[in-house]
Amino acid sequence: MTEDLKTASAEEKFSFGAEIERLLDLVVHSLYSDREIFLRELVANAADALDRRRFAALTEAAPAVPEGAAIRIIPDRPARTLTISDEGIGMDREELIAHLGTIARSGTLAFSAELAKARPEERPYLIGQFGVGFYSAFMVAERVEVVSRRAGREDAYRWSSEGRGTFTVTPAERDRAGTDVILHLKADAEEFLDPYRLETIVRKWADHIAWPITIRRDGKDLPANEGTALWRKPRQDVKEEDYKAFYRHLGHLFDDPWLTLHWRAEGTLEFYALLFIPSRRPLAILEEERDSRVRLHVRRMFITDRAGLLPPWLRFVQGVVDTEDLPLNVSREMLQATPLIPRIRKALVNRLLGDLKGRTGDPGYVSFIENFGAILKEGLWEDFEHREDILGLLRFRSSAVEGWTSLEDYIGRMKPGQEAIYVIAGERIEALREAAVLEGFRARGLEVLLLDDPIDAFWPDRVDAFKGKPIRRATQAVGDLEKFPLPGEDAAALPIETLERALKNALGDAVREVRSSRRLVESAVALVPGEEGGDLFRERLTRRLGRHERPVSPPVLEINPRHPLIKSLARRAEAGDDLAPLAETLLELARIGEGEMPLHPQRFVAAVTRLLAAGEEEGPPSGKAPHGKETSPSSAPSATEREAEEREKEKDHD
Ligand SMILES: Nc1ncnc2c1ncn2[C@@H]1O[C@H](COP(=O)(O)OP(=O)(O)O)[C@@H](O)[C@H]1O
Ligand SMILES: [Mg+2]
Fold this sequence. Notes:
alpha+beta; nine-stranded mixed beta sheet; 25 helices; 18% strand; elongated; binds magnesium ion
């Protein structure tokens, strides 16, 4: 192969993945009215690259950021190009290909769904949130070139694309490390060659970038941003609008903060802190990550957003902490070893919890709980120290009152003689409200808190009490209802030991026990956990997650000795009828009531269909004896026989 040919083939052509192509199309067309934000995204990328280079220099002995480094915005009217130039970490050839062309890190589908939902004023924040900012360049450019040289390397490369299907990468020259993004502007985007227009955009969107930004005008690079560290200003000097703008910039968020906390800690521990709690729940995609991203600065300089300045259960808090007590050249290892971070974390947590406590009466507090209560609850599980404080902050739905209630208010409503706070956890509040196991509580005027977050399946196992009152699951607490007998309850019940035995015999290992219950009033049957500390919702969730904590013992089938159906079955059991086929149907009914699928859906459907058909043959229900059909032993003998046969067949198959 000749030299010439080699040079010619040095240009390599790549295709964007299908995902990226769709993304490009989406970004270019849906954000058209906000297209000036391309500048915000490119400047933000340049700032990120500078941050990363500085941090790399501290921790990996990579070359430092040169003195006076800035982000330069250079309009060139004759060439009709706009260049954004930085001296950041740069990209090598593989990084250019990977970061600007082959990996769409966030789902296009999720992005377009959010875009469709978003109000117009929210759209400009979405691309930042989804990490697709670079592609916004194609809103204003017919061709984008990126010339980059990785810090510590000699070779540079040029990435080039028209944003339609393919891009090329060629060897290039760059005299120092860093990146130039060169936009060949579309004919209708010439406004972005005007330095004054550019300055307006920078002021609006990028004023908080901590690196100097310059715009070239008449051959001179003129400063365009203030780059002030807002968090270091005295509170009275910061306008509400500044806080808002900074908050949006920080988290790529488009709402207003619900809570803004800005203070300076003095004394043994010195730092500035500016923390925000959003007024809306950010997109689900942001919740995949559990680590707090509160930013750590040392003497204004951004160090990292991975210092773990807040525990995971406060990860919805956004913000900045700036300290003088660490050296500017702090390394990753040093960050992990220094006792300073845990001490700052403790101070931040205490401040946040204290402040939240003072706001529980605020009108927005309920939204705060709706947005972040589920995350806060994770602290009940993993942060012993703050358990009581978190419980005090939480609000719950209840079987007794509308809306949200606090544990303190619950305690105020407890019945004389009631010892414990009762809770029940499940998938949906509506289903919990109607749960069979709550009937006995309701009839006795015992309030139960209804918990429907997945985390609610777990924390009651770890939290013993609040203000000295034990927290107990309503599905356990077997003896508790005995203390509050209902008038006439025992007279209405039938002795059902024979039935219990018959059902247990029929169901075998599918249940641990069949027992009579005071929990049931209207319902005939219900399923409860088979052991102390068990919870069916928790078992369901762990099963769904593909995890088995430990072998769970089979559930208990509770039956209501006051229910006409159970009474009639009890009589049949005494008379020696075979109740085996019905036993399975009862268990399936209890499973469905609990929110489980039947174990044998088709068999269950067949059994119920037969019962319904038997009812139809006898004519419409009279209304006087709604449970008469089950009592008449002649109503469905053939059906039960057939069912027994099928069960035998099934066994053979197993
Ligand atoms: N000026 C730059 N210097 C170095 N790397 C860059 C630069 N611009 C973009 N990149 C790389 O391209 C990636 C994609 O950028 P972008 O689409 O804006 O998403 P995000 O900034 O959210 O990661 C960045 O994560 C970074 O790795
Ligand atoms: Mg970006």
